Amino acid sequence: MNTPLSLALAVTAASALHAAPVLFDFGTADSPLHTGALRVTEKGGEHAAWESSVPPAARAHPVQRDWVENTHTRRKDPPASYQTELTCDHIASAASATVTLAVPSGTYRLILLCGRAGGRAEQVWDICAATEDGASARATFAGPHELRALTLDATTGTRGIRLDLTTRSRWVLNAVIAVPAAEWEAAQRDTVDPLLRDALLLPREVLASWKIVPRPDTAPEPVWSARQRQDGVAVYARPWCEPVWPDHKPRQHELDAPVRAFASPGEYEPLTFTLHALRAVTNVEVRLSALVGTNGRERVELPAENIDLRAVRYMFVRPNYNAFNTAYRAPDVLMPWQPQPIPRGENLRLWLTVRVGQGQPAGLYHGRATVTADHTVLEVPLTLRVLPITLLKDRSLVYGQYYRHPLPNSERAPDAFSRAWWQRKAEAEHMDMREHGMNTVVLGLGGWLKDGRWQFMFDTLQRNLDLARSVGFDKPFVCSFPCSALYRKHMNNADMGSHLSQIKMPPEAFFDELTWMVQTIDAEARRRQWPELLYYPVDEPSTSPDSVAFMTRVMAAIKKVPSVRTYITADPEHEPFAPLRPYVDIWCCQPFSLGREAVLADMKARGVEYWCYPNHISGENDHTPTIGARMTYGFGFWQSGYRCLIPWIYQSMAGDPWSYLDASTSDFFNRTADDGTPIPVALWEAYREGIDDHRYLFTLETAIARAEAAGRREAASRAREVLARILAEMHIQPKYKQDNLWSAGAFDAWRWALAEQLLALQTEELKP
Amino acid sequence: MLTPYTTTLTDEAERRGIRVTFINEDPDLPIFDLCRNGERVRCFNALTDRVGAATYHLVNHKRACHEWLARQRIPVPAPSRPPLSRHKTKGLAMKHASALIAGALCSALFARSEPSIEYRYLDGLAAPKRWSPAECEVTVSPHRAWEHPVACMRIPVDFHAGEKAYPIGWPRMYLSLDADEQGWSEYDRFEFQLYTESSRERLPARPVTFHLYDTQGQKKLIVLEQAVLKEWRTVSVNLSDLNLAGPVARLGFNINESDYSDKDWIAFHVGGFRLARATAPHVTELRAVTPALFCDCRVLPIELVIEGPAAQLASGIPVHLRTGSRTVLTRTLPVTRGRQTLYVPLDKTPLTPGAYTVTVNPDADGRGPEAAISFTTTPWQ
Fold first, then answer.
1. Burial classification of residue A620, based on how many CB atoms lie within 10 Å of its CB (0-12 exposed, 13-18 middle, 19 or more buried)
2. Minimal Cα–Cα distance from B168 to chain A, Å?
3. What's the per-residue H, E or C state across A468-491?
4. Does B381 reside within a domain?
5. What is the per-residue pLDDT across A88-121, written as a single tens digit (0 to 9) for each?
6. Domain with B337 in it: what CATH number?
7. Which chain B residues are within 8 Å of A252, Cβ to Cβ?
8. Nearest Cα residue in chain A from B259
9. Host domain of residue A204
């Protein structure tokens, strides 16, 4: 370990030798060293010294670029995440440590790269870096691939910059880029941003094979007012479910358009507005006031704490989740608000979500968002009408999510902090799903063969069911079970292949044992008083004759167990699936492939159910069809006759969850904050708003029935006309995504038309 | 129970994807709306609000109707047999008339007056040797489309043959355009005719998909749902809907064998390939993308497709908004060729809530493509 004297000498030498910025590359003695960087090992080095009660450990991973064969899909996959010379190696520890870096005296901006450490998926990394002058930065994230860049300012002491590294689990440090404060602007442009792009998006030589294709802007440049030119910022508003692209111009009529919404008690409602930078803005701050109104007698308030403030983050996305080499920037994640800059010509969309509590008095509420953009202060008026409507929900419908459960990670976690983090993630996500209208989630029962006997993870499923029920999920649970493991047992460890691409018919004993397996699970489910499980042996079987023959026998084997129901992700419109019909209780297909009349007739005739997994609006092949998502969950679902929407998936992560371009498939849908709570995407909000559209429809239908039963036919008839008009104006489709949809503004107008009728029926009811 | 006078119309409408909404539950008074894309026509049996009173009486008179149909060269029963009862003869004539009126009506509901169109035929696209087939064969078709050559793509559906990894695959064929077949940007539409034969009695919902690729490999896929067995159908692709970054360079067709049954065969005759453009500005589609709007909104969005030379569009297009017979607003808006959304500025004073009609490019009598809009009250007053 270096002595204080030697570091002091190193600082002196550094003044003479090093041009800013200074790169410190943390790793082993012989791991790849970034060109021009100074090596720091677990023992320190010429330019760094450690102090710690427990010596940290160094580790390196190969910088891999080759694609590798995936035996299950029979395709080649790229690396899950891309290492660079700076990120492929790191130093980590579970104990606190201090590192002193020899740099010339002065004030610096530091960029710390932390992550991509490999290792266990259950490990949660927690890093807090603090300087001698009290600045600190922190990051918490899970798994082997995520990489974070922490920024903090530091002033040198006598020996350089001291960084205290503390953790609640393990910290990891890959690199430090130290930039003299006076040279930040140039260094950011010439050194920092390129290095961060290499590390956080894709290495430049890999990115070179991708084409970035911006979404074209066809709107003419609006006429800016003198005030907007002077401010350098223009405020504009468009309906929340219409995307705002990163560098598109606002439409003329959107400038200074009112920011307004209406909602009923119990609803969450979005309010959005956007700042367009006519010149670069270095810092934007936003403050929200309460929303204040009157109930006719007294002042009433909806506190600012009820308003969640976020900003839309633009991500590089692929046109399809398994496409390569084409990307574009798209609005996606709704990040918790923090002050930030706006590059010239770009947009910053503020996304407010108002929670209208039960009991919030009806009325018209006004508030404002105070925006400070550098030296400009702008007041954006906000308006919310709270309606005196008690919204109902059709409790017979099922709203579910495919879901990668965090609880098993909690059970396998290597330390207490990680364990608690996964637990909190699971709980927070379940609550989030409930608040977004969900009432079930797809689960799985694990199992394996040990000494010739099946071991089922009933307790794990118990915990998952307990958590689901604790947030009020009260619908049947789609449940996978070890069908593929059973196949391997009978087929000499062979793989069924993706979509049963490698399936061969197993012997009769397989099907007998499959029946036994379902009987065993069912018996345990009854003993434990579980809610209904829907048996889900295989996902998306293909229509090949071998696949269909196998699936027919599988479903028949399951149906030998009395009273259990089977679930399949397949389109009944595909004729090859016809042999399956007697054995499938729930058909779950991607589009609303059968029309309403056919669905209702078949459900009535045979007691089957038609569900839908609308992946065309789940983000897997487009992150922006928010209008289509709202339509799918609202008016489209209402008209369809289907019983459930259960898309794949609540959160899809592959590689670094903040780079959508690495790994074999893109990440999509909700992200995770440092504390394990969910970060929504715009599509997720669109699901909730679609469900709310459906609630207005259902509440009105219920009110109509009540009015007709009470003889208030005229009012009921007027309400029915509104429903008929909505139906007439719908372009009914199997998939609501981009084409032939209403514009964003029509949805709120229809919702208001429904609300008006509800209010009218309510008024009629109160008449003597 | 509904009579053939009604079901002839409603069955045809539903077959064409036009929504039928009965607004009166009494089967003896079958009044219903035919709706599509925001347009609506109200009907009673086979009568519509667009059939005048005089025409009604023509159809209702046995002899007059019979003679009129015969003059239109519509097959009617010969008059030599002992006359049927007035009711039955009327019924037969009505059924023929209804079937025709049904077909004409469903087209007429959404017809537009046709401007002069220029065509550029690409007969080379019908040459079988130009196509690269997989799991199908392409030959010269015996048929002609618009008097131009046709190719035949014949597909034997076989769940056991084809590519080893994907026995239930995607029989397909592709063609790369020659240099002199490119340059589509001066045209409004790409069209061809499609005739389908099969061993099946009915086509699946997704019978065949048509592909267009640009030079960078970006593609537009169009499911040809209009395919019908043993009937010619025109496929008309609006070029402004392609959203391709570059010029069209390659075409393709494919089926999904999973949409068919094993051992089906199917033949698609495709030909008469042509590019089309209007010689004068012409609105071919109008859609109220916001059929309901708050009365205090700043703009009314409408979606148009405009064909015609771009140079002639500079003067803009008039848009009228009226309620009943009263025009409440007139605007002239700049337009471009192709599909576009226009934001019609509204007055600052909120409109009176109610039903309105927006008309684009009206003639001297105020007629033109139109769409219905509902303005609602505003929640924020």
1. buried
2. 6
3. HHHCCCCCCEEEECCHHHHHHHHC
4. no
5. 999 999 999 999 999 999 999 999 999 999 999 9
6. 2.60.40.1930
7. 343
8. A574
9. 4-209
